[in-house]
Design brief:
alpha+beta
Length: about 700
Amino acid sequence: MTRYKIGIDVGGTFTDFLLTHEDGSSYTYKVLSTPDDPSIATMKGIAEMASDRNLSVKKFLKDVSVIVHGTTVTTNAVLTSTGAKTALLTTKGVRDALEMRRGIREEQYNNRYRNVEPLVERYLRWPVEERLDYKGDVIAAIKAKDVEKGAGLFLKEGVEAVAICFMNSFAGSRHEEIAARIIKKKMPSAYLTVSSSFLPSIRFYDRVSTTVLNSYVGPILKKYLDALLKKLAAEDYQGMILIMQSNGGVISPQIAMDNAAVTLLSGPAGGPVAGIVYAGVQKYDDCITMDMGGTSFDAALIKNKTPFVTTVGEVNRLRLALPMLNVVTIGAGGGSIGWMDEGGLLRMGPQSAASKPGPVCYDLGGELPACTDADLVLGYLHKDFFAGGRIKLNLDKAKKAIEERLARKLKMSLEETALGMYNVINANMAAAVREVSVKYGQDPRDFPLVVAGGAGPNHACMIALELEIPVMIVPRESSIFCAAGMLMSDLKHHFVRTYSTSFNKIDVRKFHSMFDRMKKEGVALLKTENVSSLSGIEFVYSMDLRYINQYHEVNVEVTAEEVKHLELASIRQKFHQKHNALFGYSLENEGTQVELINMRMVCIGSTEKPRFMEQEFAGGDASGAIKNRRNVYLPREKKFVEVDVYDGLKLRYGNSIKGPAVIEQVNTTAFVTPEYHVLVDKYGSYTLFLKEKEEEIRQRLEC
């Protein structure tokens, strides 16, 4: 029986699919996203796969063992303020913490600054008389009548979701458990999030904000996944379905529905996972990934085969205190619209033409010139070969829109304006790459740039030149990069417990029991996801540490042996080194005490990864892949020149190309500037490199 695996990445403009076969072959698909109901685009893509094999959807799905699905449903709900009507039960006296936040003004010198609107209106933030101290001991018993009155109000107001978050509940869950039982009895159909089980960690604002976010997006994700699961069930799908998280791991649909906030910002999380694999083929342990799609641009840094992870992020200025891959996302994609600001300067994005109406050249009613229109005018795209010819681009309309909307106002020629659009969006993306590298003390020149997204390879050379990056890797599956990463992801669950104490006062028994409880919870969850053996589970330990009286802590990964024997000297030394790397100093020689704040554990269940087909060495001659020649605009020379256009699917391991050139595939196009040459690796990916790096690259590719 033929067995397939499918990775699905639902984006703002396109929904991407990677179909892998057990023999190592793979196939890519793209369909326009359907924002009103993303499951429509998902099923449409599956139908295309079935049609290509002359099968019905039902028969095709019998041969599919795993579907790994990333979704932007929750993120979009927060960005567009279309989540569920949510209420909050919290300790009397702190109901306004959700609005006061940390009391820090985000933009100190902006006199027009306005605070972000809370997701819960004030009258639905219901105070409950109760109080625990920092150790979890009862100061004031909970008044059940307060909870019952709140439930009555919530029912009257048509509340769909409830968040429960009491002061100091990280230290004791008893009051939240009482409140939860009452809400479940009074509001059995409401979506409920209880902070002491969802995020039992210190810092009240972080916890209450994250708890509310989970309830706000929970019903939205549940509705979407229920619809998708029903459609798949109607086609008799019997395989496994996994959902991508923002931490780079996957989980079952039920766990995703119960913990919906873990899917916030999960869309780009597949990128770093895929980057590790594609860079590893060429013996790189480090890399920077960039993914330019139709709506957004994502950048992430990988060091020692490990993506940077942050435990505090924001979604639309709302605090999310869950572990997530440190991916910087900006509004820069093929659909990014060109416009002029009040000062008469050309800008690109963050507004996007998205999939409907799309850039002007899509000829679907769009009137505002976008990045794709500029790429078409400059010759990087061909009007008859976009999406392999399935979407015909209207060059005349693209020219007219750029001319009328921008060129005349800027008093520039059509080509100068299109080049300006191209350069501006490239500068925006280069800034995002600096954000994930220079900000953390890393020099981007020391990392290969793994290039992805349907639009990414057309812009990568100029971004790399701006950053002085000498080597780039463009995977053959670059256009569906995140979908590929999803198939390479493991089951992953993060746990956190607060234990605030000085290092020299750690209670060894308490320390070990807290890690043991997290371990048991992780094993139990993985068993529900069909991980039956402990041998298939990996446990990763870390601790949030800081110097005594500091405000911010540093997360330090520790080994199982360091945990087992509580090797404080070794852990302390790791902390000093990481603090120095992040902030440029340490207090190692000052005798300053180190303080433990949080204990963290990641439970990882290994999944079966797709196998990609290797190619036989074919030599350096790439002339057999030349399709034709066409005029493209060279940005630095500022002129059109005729260059060779290669069929990317005909290029083979060892083939060599000298820039300038264009490499076309059905789902992406790569523009190679004169500064870069290309070598094809054994998986069909393209390595772009500055001329002086050729010998090093050949050694890495063994060709």
